[in-house]
Task: structure prediction
Amino acid sequence: MADDALFEFLHMEMVAHVYKQQASRAETEQERTTSVSILEGMGFRVGQGLIERITKDTPGFKDDLDIMKFICKDFWINLFRKQIDNLRTNHQGTYVLQDNRFSLLTQFSNGKQYMEEAPKYLAFSCGLVRGALCNLGLDSVVTAEVSTMPSCKFQVVIQKA
Amino acid sequence: MADDALFEFLHMEMVAHVYKQQASRAETEQERTTSVSILEGMGFRVGQGLIERITKDTPGFKDDLDIMKFICKDFWINLFRKQIDNLRTNHQGTYVLQDNRFSLLTQFSNGKQYMEEAPKYLAFSCGLVRGALCNLGLDSVVTAEVSTMPSCKFQVVIQKA
Result:
């Protein structure tokens, strides 16, 4: 329990640090893009490292859907101690992963007032997913959105080579 | 197991980021001081948050030594899944906490070649200890040294008011 807290608190600090550092440099809109991409990049590399450990003893995957199911279950449990609650796909390379209680958002109150802040706290996790998929051979674009805290949806669009 | 990896990988990324960002700004010696203090400050705030959760149901402590024992045992197990291996004190406010296999150093090879890098990876943890002690009412100065990887010693000097 409190073990997760170590990661969660560090994540909070990191987000705060990256935003503060960028704020001292640039203007609002551009600044936000850069901070998001710094955090996304960190997540990407962490995701690459983690998936390597997690799939060490896993046999191959039969298709993209099989990979996505692995991300929703094994990968997510490993990181956030719960599975993705809902996975949907259009069978054309777009997947929507819904987590009804995303651990990095549970510290926020449920109201609307922190909604604007939410993307800050999702960038790292988008990177985690993209990094993991990349190491499994899938190029993707991963974005996230929050409609009601602490629930959120990750949209994964696989880029065909 | 891989849960810890999430924290460990994020910690690595954070150290790399802070150093890279500072490197693009200042000169070597000063840069190192700043990076260390940024990381130490992050650890401090994380330590404050964590100790609050961990001591929620703990009765009061009878003296400084009692607090230090709690840090070595409960606090350390909570963060790093093992206790401090050895605690020594001069009974005048100085404590030396030795961890023979410190989790944030286990990724390094045992040789001497990474010794210079070690302080980077200890700053956050020094802050963790200082933050925890601060919330328990003790002002302290915490430093760390490595003689053989992955073993390390934290020196805590309590500042009398």
